[in-house]
Design a protein that fits this description.
With 234 residues, the first copy, chain A, is an alpha+beta fold. Chain A has 6 helices and 11 strands. In chain A, a hairpin with a 5-residue loop joins strand 4 (66-71) and strand 5 (77-83). The longest helix of chain A is centred in the middle third of the chain and has 27 residues, at 125-151. Chain A binds a DNA duplex (30 and 30 nucleotides) through helix 5.
Amino acid sequence: MQVASAARSTTPIPAFPFPVPGLNAAGQSLASQPLPERIMRVQRGREIYAEGDMADQLYKVISGTVRTCRLLPDGRRLVAQFALSGEFFGLDGVSHHRFFAEAVSDVVLVAFPRREINHWVERDPAVAQSWQAYTLEKLAAAQDRFILLGRRTATERVAAFLLDLAERGRGPVGTVDLPMSRYDIADYLGLTAETVSRVLTNLRKSRIIGDQGCHRLRILDQDALQEQADEEAL
Amino acid sequence: MQVASAARSTTPIPAFPFPVPGLNAAGQSLASQPLPERIMRVQRGREIYAEGDMADQLYKVISGTVRTCRLLPDGRRLVAQFALSGEFFGLDGVSHHRFFAEAVSDVVLVAFPRREINHWVERDPAVAQSWQAYTLEKLAAAQDRFILLGRRTATERVAAFLLDLAERGRGPVGTVDLPMSRYDIADYLGLTAETVSRVLTNLRKSRIIGDQGCHRLRILDQDALQEQADEEAL
DNA sequence: CGTCGGATTGAGAACGTTCAAGGGGCGTGG
DNA sequence: CCACGCCCCTTGAACGTTCTCAATCCGACG
């Protein structure tokens, strides 16, 4: 884990991970009490925290992509989350991390001490409410993923993944960035890299997506892709 | 949904769904402000709430078993949770339920209005903390399930399921109750009922579990079962 | 220009599903 | 009380999707 020098005055104060009344859009406290912050820079492939580490911080991605994973003893891996720029991660355990986090690409992060969040939560019921709502939303998203992993075909999973990334990504409309490898995608979707590759090839041959290199593609037919994601047997 | 008549004086006040300072073990308020409660009785197979319903209540199972599920348009189903007696459910959406809940067996429930919980959370930071911790725990459990659904073999899934039920169940030690059907189990584990049945047969033939009817079994070799659950290739 | 890791493609195998048939337990009705 | 019927559970056989293993290709980077 690499911690860069303290934030420069040129670095904008990052937004709090969840919307909080009393903070403006940039996350600056309206109560003239700036949030403590710690800017971190992590190189591609480096670990941000390990499984079992104290979960005493939350992280917000300023730029780049982060993955949180767990490894089984025999080498099988599952990616729990991809955190894109603007998103946050680190909420994978009550007191200790149950997953480890790595930088998919070079990333810049902000770390929020959890005790600071707890302090806020204790002081302000509205913050507590926001925080709770945020956690509940995460829980709902996790439950949605049960269906993807438990009952969807390979094509459905990949199509849904592309649509999800397209929505979350910040590139030009219709263009999807895939900063992670096929192995990462596979371990996120409960597939193998070969299967992911084959599905992408099929979608390309069907003119549903267009090729712009390994780590970028265009969605040529949004409706068709949606159809592939929702249900094979429509 | 069936709502029984108001609780009798013989009905013990049910415990709050999550541990809360200021409440004793039975969930009775020490602040001489009893929690509002609503006892419900639901017959086996009946719906408790539907997908899309307002998520304005949390439920605690007093006796029986409840499943929460979602259905895909083509009939595929996924069971998100089994709530055994003493456990609670209903936290499957921020404002509206994203799953529907049904009674696996005849059940007795207590419903807690969410606004009541919110009220408590707003009044007492310690309650807020407990509530938050509870939600985080649920989130961590959900993330664990990603691995089960994404990367485990059929045998591993079933073995892990049996161990989980054995731990949560309240029957005699070494005995596991399976109130739900093979189809329910399959939809919980992302398998088919046939596969579940086959795995159980294999475990029986290996003398790892013993037969006591379709809905009850004995764990004969806990270590072996643990081995099956953790990893095939140990 | 060469090297290396990731991506793609192919062939074969394996695991789980699908389809189908038979068996058993429980509740209902005669 | 017994018989029937309806689920559900179990078992078998064939199929299919995905995985595994392997070779090749491509692109990024030195």
